[in-house]
C-alpha cells in the first residue's frame, strides 16, 4: 500500500500533524533529516494509524501514491527552501508540495510560480493552533492552485478543527500566496487582541488596584459574555496561576518584555504598502517593541519622566461601573481591530488578484486557532448576510455594539490618560472610530501644507479638477493643473 500523503519534518508540529493524519484514516509517509525522530514517532505512536516510515528521501518519495502529496514542516527559511527543491527534483508534474510553516506570502508567491513552471502544484498553507492544534485539529489556511484542492480538500477536512456546527475549519483561501497572507493577518489580529486584553488587565491592576486573582475572576465572567474566546479564557488561567516557590501571583514573576517572531510585523509592513490603516495591530507590535527597549525604560525609571502614579480616580461605587466600562471598551476596540484586519485581507485580495470569501475566513477561525471565539460567528454572519458595505463596522450588529459601547470607551480612554496608564490600542481604536465618522478631517490642512511647500496640488470641495495655489507669488492666484 502506498501513502496518500507524506510529512517531512517530524519535530513538534510535523509529528503532531502526522499523527492527526494517521488517526483520521490517512496513510502517512514520514521522513525526517535525523532518522531518530522518525523511529521515535513510529515506536511511540505507530499504532495510532497507518504510517510508512522512510529513512531516505528517495524511499519516502517512492512510498507515495500519485499525485504525490507532501507537507513540509521543517524549520522556516533555508531548511524549508532546501526541501522544496529536493522534493521538486524527485517529483513529477501534477505532484503537490505543501509548505505548512509561517512563510512570508511573497516568498510563497515566488515559489508557487517557480514550481508551476515545472508542473508542480505548490501550496502555501497557514496552520494555526500550535502543537495541540496540529494534533487535535488546527485551523488551516491553504492557498495554491485551485486544482490541488481536489486532492487536498478531503484530507485537510479530515484533520482540521471542527466548529460548533461540525464544519471543518479549512477552506481553499485563494491562489498562490493567499493562504499565507490570511495566516499572517490572523496573527496580526491575534497581536491586537492580546494587546487589548493586556491594556484591560493594566487598567484593572494598576488603575483600580485589583489583585491578579480578582482580575482572573473578572475575565472568567467576561468569558460568559460576547467576549467569549480562547484568549480571554487563557488570560484568566495565566492570572489565576500562582508561583509555587514564592506564593506570588505568577504574572509578577514573568519579565514584562513581550517577544515576537515576525508575523505581526509583516502584517503591519504589508498594510503600509497597500496602504490600509491597521492602527490597532501596529500599536500592538509597537507596544511589544517598547516593552523590549530595556535601556530606555530603565532610564525613565530614574525619575526622568514625570507624571501621575498610575491610577484611575474613582470612588468605591464607581469602580464596579468602571470594570463594566473596560469590558465595553475592550469589545468595541476588538471590533475595530478585526474590522481593520479584514480590511487588510480584502485590500490584499484586490492587490494580488485573489478571490477571498471573507465570511469563510471568519468561519475557519471559529475553532482550532488562537483567535477562536464566538465573535467570529458574528463576523461570518455579517459577511454572509451581504449587509457589509465597505467595512465590518457598518454591519448593523457591529454598528450598534460600537454605538452602545462608546460612552464607556471614551470614559476608559480619558481616565487612562488622566491617570497615566498607557492604552495605545484602546485609544487608537477610538481615534479610528472618530476619524471614520468625521465629516471633515484635518487632512485638508495637510494637503494645504503639501501644496505650499511642494506644489503637490489639492482637490476642491466645490468643483472637480486638480489645483495649485501660487503661494510664493501672492497666495491669491490658483492654477488648474491639466493632467
Ligand atoms: P522547528 O521549526 O523547530 O524545526 C525542526 C525541524 O526542522 C526538524 O525536523 C529538523 O530536523 C528540521 N531541520 C532543521 Br532545524 N534544519 C534542517 C536542515 N538544514 N535540513 C533539514 N531539516 C532541518 O519545528 P516545529 O516547531 O515543529 O515547526 C515546524 C514548522 O511549523 C516551522 O516552519 C514553524 O514556523 C511552523 N509552525 C510552527 C508552529 C508552532 O506553534 N510551533 C505553529 C505553526 C507553524 P532534525 O530533526 O534533523 O534536526
Average pLDDT figure: 96
Q: What's the main sheet like? A: 7 strands, mixed
List the total number of helices.
19
Order of strands, main sheet, comes to 3-2-1-4-5-6-7
Kindly, what is the distance between the CA atoms of the first and last residues, rounded to a whole number of angstroms?
68 Å
Output the structural class. Answer: alpha/beta
Percent range of helical residues: 55-70%
Give the cofactors and ligands: nicotinamide 8-bromo-adenine dinucleotide phosphate
Could you characterize what this model shows?
By secondary structure, the protein is an alpha/beta fold. It is built from 19 helices and nine strands. The chain has helices spanning 12-23, 35-45, 57-62, 78-90, 105-117, 130-136, 148-159, 178-207, 212-222, 230-240, 263-273, 279-291, 294-304, 316-352, 358-364, 375-385, 396-419, 424-437, 443-454; strands at residues 5-8, 27-31, 50-53, 69-72, 96-99, 121-128, 139-142, 466-469, 478-481. It has a seven-stranded mixed sheet with strand order 3-2-1-4-5-6-7, sandwiched between helices. The protein has a two-stranded antiparallel ribbon with strand order 8-9. Helix 8 (178-207) crosses helix 11 (263-273), helix 8 (178-207) crosses helix 12 and helix 12 (279-291) packs antiparallel against helix 18 (424-437). It is globular, with a radius of gyration of 26 Å. The termini are far apart. The mean pLDDT is 96. Bound molecules: nicotinamide 8-bromo-adenine dinucleotide phosphate. Residues 9-14, 32-34, 37, 73-76, 79, 82, 100-102, 127, 130-131 line the site of nicotinamide 8-bromo-adenine dinucleotide phosphate.
Amino acid at each position: 500500500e502506498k501513502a496518500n500523503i507524506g510529512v517531512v519534518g517530524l519535530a513538534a508540529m510535523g509529528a503532531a500533524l502526522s499523527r492527526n493524519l494517521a488517526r483520521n484514516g490517512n496513510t502517512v509517509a514520514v521522513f525526517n533529516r535525523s532518522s531518530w525522530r522518525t523511529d521515535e514517532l513510529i515506536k511511540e505512536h505507530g499504532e495510532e494509524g497507518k504510517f510508512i516510515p522512510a529513512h531516505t528521501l528517495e524511499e519516502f518519495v517512492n512510498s507515495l501514491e500519485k499525485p504525490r502529496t507532501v507537507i513540509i514542516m521543517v524549520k522556516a527559511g533555508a531548511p524549508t527552501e532546501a526541501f522544496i527543491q529536493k522534493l521538486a527534483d524527485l517529483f513529477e508534474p501534477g505532484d503537490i508540495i505543501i509548505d505548512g510553516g509561517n512563510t512570508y506570502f511573497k516568498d510563497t508567491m515566488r515559489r508557487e510560480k517557480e514550481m508551476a513552471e515545472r508542473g508542480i502544484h505548490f501550496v502555501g498553507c497557514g496552520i494555526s493552533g500550535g502543537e495541540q492544534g496540529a494534533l487535535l485539529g488546527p485551523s488551516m489556511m491553504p492557498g495554491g492552485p485551485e486544482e490541488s484542492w481536489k486532492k487536498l480538500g478531503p484530507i485537510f477536512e479530515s484533520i482540521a478543527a471542527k466548529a460548533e456546527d461540525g464544519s471543518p475549519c479549512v477552506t481553499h483561501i485563494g491562489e498562490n500566496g493567499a493562504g499565507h497572507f490570511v495566516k499572517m493577518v490572523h496573527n496580526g489580529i491575534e497581536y491586537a487582541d492580546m494587546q487589548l486584553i493586556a491594556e484591560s488587565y493594566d487598567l484593572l491592576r494598576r488603575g483600580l488596584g485589583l489583585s491578579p486573582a480578582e482580575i482572573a475572576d473578572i475575565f472568567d465572567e467576561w468569558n460568559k459574555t460576547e467576549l467569549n474566546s480562547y484568549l480571554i479564557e487563557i488570560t484568566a488561567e495565566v492570572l489565576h496561576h500562582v508561583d509555587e516557590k514564592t506564593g506570588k501571583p505568577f504574572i509578577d514573576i514573568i519579565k514584562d518584555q513581550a517577544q515576537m517572531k515576525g508575523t505581526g510585523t509583516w502584517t503591519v509592513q504589508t498594510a503600509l504598502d497597500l496602504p490600509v490603516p491597521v492602527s490597532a495591530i501596529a500599536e500592538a507590535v509597537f507596544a511589544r517593541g517598547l516593552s523590549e527597549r530595556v535601556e530606555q525604560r530603565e532610564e525613565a525609571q530614574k525619575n526622568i519622566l514625570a507624571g501621575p502614579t498610575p491610577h484611575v480616580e474613582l470612588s468605591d461605587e464607581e469602580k464596579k461601573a468602571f470594570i463594566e466600562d473596560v469590558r465595553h471598551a475592550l469589545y468595541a476596540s476588538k471590533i475595530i481591530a478585526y474590522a481593520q484586519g479584514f480590511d487588510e485581507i480584502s485590500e490584499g485580495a484586490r492587490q494580488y488578484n485573489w478571490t477571498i470569501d471573507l465570511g469563510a475566513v471568519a468561519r475557519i477561525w471559529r475553532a482550532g486557532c488562537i483567535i477562536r471565539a464566538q465573535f467570529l460567528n458574528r463576523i461570518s454572519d455579517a459577511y454572509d448576510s451581504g449587509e457589509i458595505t465597505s467595512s465590518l463596522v457598518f454591519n448593523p450588529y457591529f454598528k450598534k455594539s460600537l454605538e452602545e459601547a462608546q460612552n464607556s470607551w471614551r470614559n476608559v480612554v480619558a481616565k487612562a490618560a488622566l491617570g497615566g496608564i498607557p492604552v495605545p490600542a484602546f485609544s487608537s481604536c477610538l481615534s479610528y472610530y472618530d476619524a471614520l465618522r468625521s465629516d471633515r478631517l484635518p487632512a485638508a490642512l495637510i494637503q494645504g501644507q503639501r501644496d505650499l511647500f511642494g506644489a503637490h496640488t489639492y482637490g476642491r470641495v466645490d468643483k472637480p479638477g486638480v489645483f495649485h495655489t501660487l503661494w510664493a507669488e501672492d497666495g491669491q492666484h490658483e492654477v488648474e493643473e491639466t493632467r
